[in-house]
Design brief:
The structure holds 2 protein chains of 2 kinds. By secondary structure, chain A is of the alpha/beta class. Chain A contains 13 helices and 14 strands. In chain A, strand 6 (about 150-155), helix 8 and strand 7 form a beta-alpha-beta unit. Classes of the chains: A alpha/beta, B alpha/beta.
């Protein structure tokens, strides 16, 4: 199949046949790129460098790489000690560990002192797969979102990831970036990322779909299904979850009046909740949250998505449902 | 230094009394240690608190703000006037140290167990940048019940942080009683030694012993040092000494007067 790309603010036609790329690998390589130019960059990991790909930085700059071992609390506070001494620090581990096990440290050391530590996690969501519930982070965005000074970004592909890493290296203060375990289709190009600005992947008028991370790709397929059904939805990629792109939300409300948010995350506290918070106090309209309720489990990611209802068909069905329901009310 | 120590003790009583809250017990036990560090040992510039080459001190037992702020005020980091407003709304002298608000505070602490990791980060940065500043960190003996302390202690020895000196305020008490009753941390020396540290044990109220241990610790190469300072919680005020009830309780008017009389 021919390679199809995305047009800025325009139409997308699907992701079949598009090259897949690893977000983690992109992260590791970008760390080397910036670490080469900036000697103040220091990288910490918690015995997962082989997985998070910070090992790529470790190989090039071993004197600036510190494996803290299986000690996430130590890692965060030590990172803060580095930052207090003028370094720009990247710390990595799995999303479930690096947000959960050291939450108090992130709050009291990193956010309260507003330091230059960037938490880049991998293995967000059900997409972790066979490792199962203990490793599937479904609450990480909820945890990070609630912290003052913390910004939250969840990119959908490797290209966006590189821009995100370059950006947060320059921008002062705490960041949480959620990367994925699986490779995803390359749907972006360099320069697509603008911090705090949702990307309009499809312009429409019937219903709006918001997504981040791996669900962006499911949402793109859902848009194609809907078009076949004669429905033209707006699709926004909300890579930046905090701060939220309020103008994008307003645009979606004005044009469609109905929003579906889909994410590989709990329906409590993620992008869906963030959007609901804004919508309910500004331009109330229906917001449907598609995500996970409960714990995850072992399985192949695609089968897990099917079981938890995070598939293009279900997204499309929900979009149709929300349309019919509102029309009934009228 | 004994004179300064007495004045610092009076301030501790005074400011917790004025605030109506605070932690006198664990502040009083750390007076000599802090007086020695700030008025004899450490290199710093109170008019330039972020001077790159300064020695760093981290109050990991962050509730000891009464002694910390008093020391910083006397050392000239901010006006002594400010002490009256300790813990009051609008004052930069927060109940637990705030890095962004108080000149001289190297890190925000208060939630126990984090200061040693932070100190390690600073010591590691010092080695990376080939600087010769020293990092000091004050730990509580209840505080070391937090697992993170032991994570950090492994980091310190793994990276041979001989530019780091930890001091353990071993006053044997925590909020709910004796540390040995709640979660026994003894034997202390053996534990720290087995984690790869050089260990010194002293009377935490003797300036001579503090001086000797700090000097010896400086000479240790290839491993971090910890000084286990045997102290008395509430030291200097008869009714507070060794009494765990004075961990986090401010003196009332009569208690304050009695305490100030004893300290004069």
């Amino acid at each position: 199949m021919a390679r199809k790309g995305t047009k800025r603010g325009g139409e997308i036609t699907g992701t079949e046949g598009i090259k897949l790329a690893s977000l983690r690998r992109a992260y590791g390589e970008t760390l080397v790129e910036i670490g080469d130019k900036r000697k103040d960059i220091v990288v910490l990991d918690a015995d997962l460098a082989e997985s998070t790909q910070t090992k790529i930085f470790r190989e090039k700059f071993p004197e600036r790489f510190f494996d803290m071992g299986i000690s996430e609390q130590d890692m965060i506070s030590t990172a803060c000690g580095f930052a207090l001494s003028g370094k720009t620090v990247f710390v990595s581990s799995f999303a479930i560990f690096v947000t959960g096990r050291c939450y108090n440290q992130i709050r009291n050391n990193l956010c309260y002192m507003n330091l230059n530590v960037k938490i880049v996690s991998t293995h967000g969501g059900l997409a972790v797969g066979e490792d199962g519930s203990s490793h599937q982070a479904l609450e990480d965005i909820s945890l990070m979102r609630g912290l003052p000074n913390m910004r939250v970004i969840s990119p959908s592909d490797a290209e966006l990831t590189m821009d995100v890493i370059r950006f947060i290296a320059e921008e002062k203060g705490p960041f949480y970036v959620r990367l994925l375990r699986p490779d995803t289709p390359l749907i972006h190009k360099k320069g697509d990322f603008k911090f705090g600005k949702a990307i309009l992947l499809n312009d429409g008028e019937d219903v709006s779909i918001f997504a981040h991370g791996i669900m962006v790709h499911k949402a793109i397929e859902a848009v194609n299904i809907l078009k076949e059904r004669g429905i033209n939805p707006i699709l926004f990629e909300f890579h930046t979850i905090k701060p939220l792109d309020e103008l994008a939300i307003q645009y979606a409300i004005q044009k469609t009046g109905k929003i579906i948010v889909v994410e590989d995350h709990s329906i409590y506290g993620g992008l869906g909740t963030a959007v609901s918070e804004y919508v309910s106090s500004n331009n109330p309209c229906k917001v449907l949250r598609l995500g996970v309720e409960g714990f995850g489990e072992s399985g192949k990611p695609e089968m897990l998505f099917k079981k938890f209802g995070l598939t293009p068909i279900r997204i499309a069905d929900k979009a149709e449902e929300i349309l019919d329901r509102v029309q009934e009310c009228n | 230094m004994n004179e300064i120590a007495r004045n610092i003790r009076k301030e501790i009583i005074e400011i917790t009394y004025l605030a109506g809250s605070g932690h006198p017990g664990g502040s009083l036990s750390a007076v000599e240690i802090l007086v020695y560090l700030y008025f004899y040992k450490m290199k710093y510039d109170s008019k330039n608190p972020r001077w790159e080459d300064r020695d760093r001190f981290i109050l990991s037992k962050g509730h000891a703000t009464p002694v910390m702020y008093s020391i910083l005020a006397y050392a000239g980091f901010f006006p002594r006037e400010d002490l009256k407003h300790f813990r009051k709304l609008g004052s930069h002298l927060q109940g637990h140290p705030s890095y962004l608000e108080v000149p001289g505070i190297e890190a925000s602490t208060g939630s126990l167990g984090m200061g040693l990791s932070i100190a390690n980060g600073m010591a590691l940065a010092g080695k990376l940048d080939k600087k010769d500043y020293r990092v000091y960190v004050l730990l509580g003996d209840g505080e070391i019940q937090e697992g993170q302390i032991w994570e950090a202690s492994m980091t310190s020895s793994r990276h041979k942080l001989d530019n780091l000196t930890a001091i353990l305020d071993n006053n044997n008490l925590q909020i709910d009683g004796k540390v040995s009753d709640i979660k026994n941390p003894y034997p202390l020396e053996d534990k720290w030694r087995s984690f790869g540290w050089e260990v010194f044990t002293i009377d935490g109220h003797s300036f001579d012993e503090i001086h000797r241990a700090i000097s010896d610790a400086e000479k240790v190469k290839g491993k971090p040092s910890i000084i286990i300072a045997k102290t008395i919680k509430g030291k200097g005020v008869s009714f507070m000494e060794n009494n765990y009830e004075w961990h986090g309780r401010a003196p009332k008017e009569e208690e304050r007067l009695q305490a100030l009389r004893e300290l004069s």
